[in-house]
Design a protein that fits this description.
seven-stranded antiparallel beta sheet; alpha+beta; about 325 residues; Cathepsin B, Chain A; about 15% strand; 9 strands; two-stranded antiparallel ribbon; globular
Length: about 325
């Protein structure tokens, strides 16, 4: 058995920030989960639908691993990434890091992990690995999935080798702090501005505040979009509220991040953004509740109400990001 010493195997709410927390605390840097999310400019929105999809998807964050790249660049961390098409080489990359006494982040498909209770393919899942023996890998996942968990080496290999949407080629990564870490407090404003700029200047109408408005137009027709609304609508609602989002499609994280920033930075623009995201959080929860209720009851009125709330959310988040861009 090989175990990295000094790992506090605690799970957080979101998978990528959980893995980042493990890697960075082992390096000596501890930040709150909302701070990790915000410094990585993690907030976004996408309304994703296509003919090949069984049901539309509402996403509230940037693409998998983009948060990690953003955070590393913003704090001057060395992000070392290994990718390969070879399962043998992929294992050697991971084992060598752990043998050297360091935890390693992995991007994989959660479907193949033994401890996952919900068997749905998701290729953008991220975990931290801190040990292995001849049968199992020792991982840190979200609190919802158990925090400190283990999965078989064969299951881990399948999870890393899976191909499909959002998957990576056996991606593993480490983070290293520079000899003199720049004060992260000085990187808050650039992180907020970058997030706001991306949100407001999204290149297509499926993204950012325009994407939320598009969702407001499309959601009222969701009962006709599926043959199994009693399954698909509650699942969509669950993904928005409870599936590692921290609540309200990641908006609770961003509200709390802005609240932490407001205690460090004296800015009316920041206070405005924080106030507006505090307004947005319960409205997103209302949307998910209405979508679930529509699926359970078949009542299209619930979806019409959800659409109206989404239009209001598009306005609120546009105004919030306008204020935050002016920091």
């Amino acid at each position: 058995m090989t175990i990295v010493q000094g790992i506090e195997a605690r799970g957080m709410q979101h998978c990528e920030t959980t893995a980042l927390d493990v890697l960075l605390r082992h390096e000596g840097l501890e930040l709150s989960e909302p701070m990790l999310f915000g410094l990585g400019s993690g907030l976004s929105f996408v309304y994703w639908d296509s003919k090949g999809m069984p049901f539309p998807f509402l996403g509230g964050r940037v693409k998998p691993f983009e948060l990690t790249r953003n955070l590393a660049a913003r704090l001057g961390l060395t992000l070392t990434v290994a990718e390969t098409t070879s399962p043998r080489r992929a294992w050697e990359n991971v084992a060598a890091t752990i043998d050297a006494g360091r935890p390693v982040g992995l991007q994989l498909d959660s479907y193949h992990l033994d401890y996952f209770r919900s068997k749905v393919h998701f290729g953008g899942h991220v975990v931290a690995m801190y040990g292995y023996d001849e049968h199992d890998a020792f991982l840190v996942d979200t609190d919802q999935q158990g925090g400190a968990v283990r999965t078989s080496l064969t299951g881990l290999a399948r999870a890393r080798a899976e191909r499909g949407p959002m998957t990576a080629r056996h991606r593993s990564f480490t983070l290293t702090l520079p000899p003199r870490l720049p004060a992260w407090q000085g990187r808050l404003v650039p992180a907020i501005r970058a997030c706001a700029e991306s949100f407001l200047a999204a290149p297509i109408a499926n993204l950012g505040h325009r994407g939320i408005a598009k969702a407001g137009k499309q959601v009222p027709g969701w009962l006709a979009r599926t043959a199994e609304p009693e399954r698909d609508l509650p699942q969509a609602a669950m993904l928005m509220e409870r599936a590692g989002t921290g609540g309200a499609l990641f908006r609770a994280f961003y509200r709390d991040f802005l609240g932490e920033c407001a205690r460090l930075i004296d800015s009316d623009h920041l206070r405005t953004g924080h106030r507006l995201y505090a307004e947005a959080v319960p409205l997103w929860t209302e949307v998910s509740t209405l979508i679930a209720k529509a699926g359970e009851s078949g009542d299209a009125t619930c979806l019409e109400q959800a659409g109206a709330v989404l239009h209001e959310l598009s306005r609120i988040e546009h105004d919030a990001m306008q204020a935050l861009r002016a920091l």
